[in-house]
Amino acid sequence: MLSTAQKQQYTDNGWLVVENVFDTVEVDALRDFATQMAEDDVKNNADVSSYAVDYAEDGSALPRKIGSPFLRDERFRQFAMQRKLCDILNELLGDEALMATDQIFMKPPRHGTEKPYHQDNFYFNVTPAEAMITAWIALDDVDEENGCLEYISGSHKDGIIEHEPVPGETYNLTPNPDALDLSRAAYARVKKGGVVFHHGVCFHKSGANHSDRWRRAYATHWVTAAAQSASGLLDKAYFKNPDIYLQPV
Ligand SMILES: O=C(O)CCC(=O)C(=O)O
Predict the structure, then answer these.
(1) pTM (2 decimals)?
(2) Domain residue ranges in the chain
(3) Most buried residue, 95, 135, 225, 230, by CB count within 10 Å?
């Protein structure tokens, strides 16, 4: 159960860190499995829709992302569909949380580029905006050295702002920096097994990894039954697929 102060923090800031949601043994097992999967994808040059890479200075490929891990292995489904996570999501959404989509983001030691400020709901286009939330599960201890998330507190109250492609990085969209109130920016440091929850309209980014440590996270995106999406995001939402979806245990 969340405290009243935690719920207020989410309402006021649009994001909330909750430590110790998962235990470190189960996180280590998932993290090792995910890292092996991503490294195998890179080696096997697997379908680019299911993974993404970064390149080291010597040109070698490094894992950056696993797309839709929930669809790729039962271990991700069983990890995410646990009551200890879903109960918090239900409290923050005020209704039953249903998983729509997910990704694993990896920043290997001394690698991993910045992900610029964006709003998840710029992409997902979910209405009402309150019917969507992201749970970013830390698979490593994260801080500003290895590329933790950074939020513009309260930005979820200001609505969606137009995003434009970053020059040379067309896969990254971000608003004009003048539109962002950086005086409200804050780091979301969290230990392995903790979760950062954020509202779909809250601006967030992640820094590059300047440390000798990995920075890996399992980002899960949830909606309620009231959610509609003009972008078609929900057409293939996991909760709509009875062959794979699990009830929380
Ligand atoms: O993990 C990252 O670097 C970016 C994650 C993110 O932007 C998200 O989960 O919405």
Answers:
(1) 0.96
(2) 8-22+67-240
(3) 135
